[in-house]
Amino acid sequence: MPPWNSAKAKVQLRLSVQRLRTLQAKKEAQAKSSRRDIATLVERGKIETARIKVEAIIGEDIHIELLELLELYCELLFARFGILDQNAREPDPAILEGVCSIIYAAPHTELKELHVLREILMHKYGREFSAQVMENRDSCVSDRVVRKLDIASPFTALVDAYLGEITKAYGVPWYPAAIKDGGDEAEKGLVEASPQFDIALPDIKTEAASTVPTTPKLPDVPPTEDENEKAALPKEGSQGKSSVVKSTTPENDFDLLTKRFAALKKR
């Protein structure tokens, strides 16, 4: 490696920031496409295949977060380049975390620009310092960077949480078994899932109402002989009224005739 070159180091920091941003955008676009595919798999009932893809997405999201951290450290070194450019055997505390994190995490990325920057920093501070960083002695590397590089299978709860958020965003009704056993709460959550991508959710209340059995209408039964006789007989109230009407009608007519005769006599 050639001796420390300030101009080259500064240019390499700029290139690293640009490439980190580009790679993040690319991976985020790929993750978006993968999430759409996962929602389609869940809609088709291929839950186990969707879970495997969710685990891959979780790993990609963690890697994107690592790229974001490295971008911040590159920007930090660029902003404090005056300190980085000093002739010192070890980095100043103001840039120590950034230098150590880049040296430690750069091999886990596919960016050549970041690899070149790592070599420049390792050459500046020497092999012994670089070996200490790679072993993370005295915890000089950021804990966040170390956690992002800790490769482990995600917990089932985390996979379920990711899968739940993906299906909710794409309007696909799915909930983990633990939530499905919740009865009314699961039904409420399913109804409230927002169909943001023109995928209609089933209306649970309407379907439940449509499945309620209705009482069939019975055919009309012809009346019996007793009922015919009862129908033919007048009711007590109606009989009294009819008799009153019949009795009062002649009286009214008689009164009218009497009045007429009296009027004729006066003439």
Automatic annotation (TrEMBL):
Q: Which domain of life is it from?
A: Eukaryota
Quote the Pfam families the UniProt record gives.
Ist1
Q: Region labeled Disordered — which residues?
A: 208-249
- Mention one GO biological process in which this protein takes part, according to its record: protein transport
Q: Where is the composition biased (Polar residues)?
A: 239-249
Please state which protein family the record places this protein in. Answer: Belongs to the IST1 family.
Q: What is this protein called?
A: DUF292-domain-containing protein
